[in-house]
Request: fold
Amino acid sequence: MDADAIAEGRRRWQARYDAAKKRDADFTTLSGDPVEPAYGPRPGDTYEGFERIGWPGEYPYTRGLYPTGYRGRTWTIRQFAGFGNAEQTNERYKMILAAGGGGLSVAFDMPTLMGRDSDDPRALGEVGHCGVAIDSAADMEVLFKDIPLGDVTTSMTISGPAVPVFCMYLVAAERQGVDPGVLNGTLQTDIFKEYIAQKEWLFEPEPHLRLIGDLMEHCARDIPAYKPLSVSGYHIREAGATAAQELAYTLADGFGYVELGLSRGLDVDVFAPGLSFFFDAHVDFFEEIAKFRAARRIWARWMREEYGARTDKAQWLRFHTQTAGVSLTAQQPYNNVVRTAVEALAAVLGGTNSLHTNALDETLALPSEQAAEIALRTQQVLMEETGVANVADPLGGSWFVEQLTDRIEADAEKIFEQIKERGRRARPDGQHPIGPITSGILRGIEDGWFTGEIAESAFQYQRSLEKGDKRVVGVNVAHGSVTGDLEILRVSHEVEREQVKVLAARKGERDEARVRTTLDAMLTAARDRSNMIAPMLDAVRAEATLGEICGVLRDEWGVYTEPAGF
Ligand SMILES: CC(C)(COP(=O)(O)OP(=O)(O)OC[C@H]1O[C@@H](n2cnc3c(N)ncnc32)[C@H](O)[C@@H]1OP(=O)(O)O)[C@@H](O)C(=O)NCCC(=O)NCCSC(=O)CCC(=O)O
Reply:
């Protein structure tokens, strides 16, 4: 790009920056020197390919979504939390909000994630262990007791039974007297990544995608600020994928949901802002920053060129980041604070919109209150002390970071081509029921291609670790330590007994006939292929449990079985 065009871009960005609202904060260095809100080539310099980098807040958004960067608003500190019963987790949420957490993020226990009630024999020993146990709308009410749902953005990490859990959240809002239409938050919902990596699926892909289509339709129409999908690379990466695989599989999944919305006749400019993303911040600092920058650029281009999105918001890739759980070590666990800080810094320099920092003890158990506080304070140290929120995309123009960004983007494009090719093989007639990328994803799930690719990357990494080419402090280098054992959080089995008792009491109090009628109406909607949200909401209002709702659908749709791969 020639110097005049660069200068013109700078003027355009500066005008937008000047017009935008900024935080009331000090934007100078620690020594008191002023810094610009964003930097670019020096006046008079040319820069080949600058249109791919650009200015913050401009297409293709490589440098962030806003002309102000974090001067307009800092990222959301959103700590993922949940354990025991709804009452205990409600206490932890109040602690997080009082300590400066900017939003909530619900972690559910394994039975809930699998759509089972706490009294299901398969739930034995798991209730309240890796998150909070939620059986019905009454639990959801307790979970958010004294937390006004209309004022706090809430993320719920659940995919298999996302839709019934979402209905419980809506009913909890109704019972607080909050109009569900004003709710703002995020539901994970991403079922592709369950088949690809995390493996907490319930049904076959086809009916499940239909249910997700119902949710997208409902939110686009009735809850405009709510984001019904958080397309997740985190679990793909944690399963062993490389940075480029994480990026490409996740964005491809995102394209799949865009195709789903379009196949339902929805307007891309209306529903696309409801798609958000969730990435891992691993420990390779620069590679991660490049990944985040490439993610925004690829998404914007595909949304504009492939899917016809016209508005900024429909082209924006907004994402939450969690630091890498797999990078934490049980050995010398205090070192995990350092790893997490470096990973969090990469997420911030990559322009994350929302961030969870892991606690130092998370490789051993759910975080203790003390470890959870250090994790949250880590974000505050970055935000308040280091000056990183003063300048948008401070690494833009770095030869290394720009070239890494280009390389990861090129690698991702190659993977998209492989996915498309699978779609062409799956549908040689060119008839794609949802869309070409979706056909490729479904074929890749069916024939175990994604899991095989991820397993191969995990294997390569493990080999290099065992050969000592890759090093991890306290694991294969620097073993000596004076650190003793940590006090870890243990969830008592009493929680399970208590939860089962409470569930039995609630079942005893409800109107059984109403439960049956509403569940039957939901089943009829499933058979008629009509939108299932309204009848599911009615069942939830009648206190039908998660296990009952998912049970009806399991009986109707069948459960998914993974193809065996060797
Ligand atoms: C979009 C995100 C990513 C973030 O939403 P947030 O509300 O926090 O932030 P946001 O949308 O970026 O910002 C809030 C509002 O401020 C505006 N805003 C932001 N920055 C601005 C700026 N500089 N200038 C002007 N406006 C700005 C935004 O446009 C938005 O307004 P408008 O709304 O008006 O536009 C959302 O989807 C989210 O919260 N995701 C979290 C997902 C999560 O927690 N997942 C946990 C998974 S945990 C998991 O899976 C566990 C893994 C494991 O351990 O097993």
User: Anything to note?
Assistant: Residues 66, 68, 72-73, 76, 78, 80, 103, 105, 153, 155, 157, 186, 225, 227, 230, 234, 276, 278, 318-320, 322, 325, 353-354 surround succinyl-coenzyme A (CB under 6 Å). The longest strand covers residues 275-281. The first helix runs from residue 3 to 19. The mean pLDDT is 96.
